[in-house]
Amino acid sequence: MSLHIVLPGLLWPPSPQQPAALQSLKTPALSRLAGCGSILRRPALAAEYLLASLFGLDERAPFGALRRAGQGEAVNSRAWLAADAVHLRFARDALLLTDAPDVAPDAEEAAALSASWNAHFANVGWLYMGAGGHGHLALHEAISVDTTPPGGALGRKIDMRLPSGPDGARVRQWMNETQMLFHSHPVNAAREESGRPAINSLWFWGAGVAVARAQARPIQVWSDNALARGMALAAGVRTAPLPAQVGVALLPDNLVVLDSALAPSLYLDAEAWAQAATALDTQWIVPALAALRRGDVQTLTLTLSGDNGRIDVTVHRRDLMKFWRRPFSVVASR
Fold first, then answer.
1. What is the pTM of this model?
2. Which of 82, 149, 269, 285 could disulfide-pair with 264, CB 3.0 to 4.6 Å?
3. Which domains does the chain have, with CATH numbers?
4. DSSP string, 186-221
């Protein structure tokens, strides 16, 4: 009779002086639940690895194939590699990765970049990329490579996060050639002229063939995250986008993945993160608390993550009587 809500990015990293946008932040329902429940602290994981852990998978999972399946696209038995449009920039003599919303291509840009890439890399595979820039490369042959997901690389130096392993050098070469190919591309010339960042590379990660070997306890997974939906499908679990009426998802044995705070947390955008945290508390956690009080669910589990770690909060209905427990802060937590 347990409901599990997963909130990637909803732990803001501690700092001596928090941004002004966070000083007055209030998430009363979340603070109440986390304050009266039991908390298990775990090491930080990239959001993609956090999702994998929920389905009995690890960092070797075929993330590219799983995400494509979660988008409702066919994957068959081919080897896939996630290939995301990114902007690489120099900062303090280091190369950093970003895929902020203003980097995401529209459908026309994605089609033009994909066409050029496919013409140049015809011997490698076929790139499928639509609006938003989350691409998937159907490889002609399987590769063995260790990669870093975007959640573990965004805003960070990439030199230690580049592809490695038996085929790492090949994939790094693809990245280098992609940078040269995109450097003078008409799409990027138009983007730079309009003041938008160039899409100057693809970030390759999550190689592998989709196999139905994921595991899951829930009977239904709700999320707008394509990777979470793909993992649910691999586990043979029903899945659907987030519903307009949240009550239909707040039921026993359901898993709800809410990732609207993830991107702001990765980019340390305090204002956008505070808005996301407030909305999540109002739209989801308040109704979840009400469902627990009514007895619609007997146990509620909240999983929150951030750069500084992960916490799993378990709240039984009887725990709501612990009025003496101090509220929990998603900002000040260590």
1. 0.93
2. 269
3. 2-59+214-321 (3.40.720.10), 78-209 (no CATH)
4. HHHHHHHHTTPPP--EEEEEEEEE--S----S-SEE
